[in-house]
Predict the 3D structure of the following.
Amino acid sequence: MYLEGLLRIKQALELIEQRLEGRLSIDEIAKAACVSPFHFQRMFLILTGMTVAEYTRKRKLTLAAQELATTSSKVIDVALKYGYDSPESFTKAFRKIHGVPPSEARRPGIRLKAFPRISFHLSLKGDQDMDYKMIDKEAFNVIGMPIEVKCDDKGQISRFWQECHQNGSIGKLSSLGNGGNFLGACMNMQPETGDFTYMIAVPTDLNASVEGFSLATIPRSTWAVFNAVGPVPGAIQHVFERIFQEWFPATGYEVASDVPELEVYSPGDISAEDYLCEIWIPINRK
């Protein structure tokens, strides 16, 4: 199962490379990996730190720059070849990556950037067990503070936690919950961009929102629950990587795309080496 899952991911990456000319939808890529578009985008983002669209764009513009620098092709022809609707949109994207417009790509001595294709290596990992438990949980309400997160802003969530502590929101929020744990809920991910809503929340018995806070319902789901031990956010990020790199390819599950992923923080010093928190991943059987 593990090898099969890795081979499917490899097939999807090869499809991206084969179809850099023209357009390729996330649905087609995910189909090659035999997973849902949401699951593939989430997995790709966790493993590479970028969205599929960002990776594809960088690869297209790498090849486009090479073609402009070494052939007599017209800018408009190269733009259309790599899926851009107009020379203007191509020029804007090209300048953002290479720092110069495509018309200057042939200028002697011009410096262009090359973004290499992802190198995929099959490996068998058995040196560390990955303990988890399965929990079926009924729907429940949470209340908290949401923020829209850009997938390429890796420090945004940490800054949001700091701001909520500093402005007193965390203290106010704790009085609205029915337990001692805080949650970090990753919800409403956009498959095409990887952007999502992150909510600092607590479970609550309230059925209506309170001024300054938002109420949300976490649907009934089956969850795979993993421990993360160590300082946050490093410990959380490491376990997320292992879940998508090792656990999912080794099992017959995929992420349930209509249910948030949860970080569960118990009271304690989150900078301590022995701090324990949990990651709850909603799952479906493929």
Q: What stands out?
A: The radius of gyration is 22 Å. The CA atoms of residues 31 and 130 lie 27 Å apart.
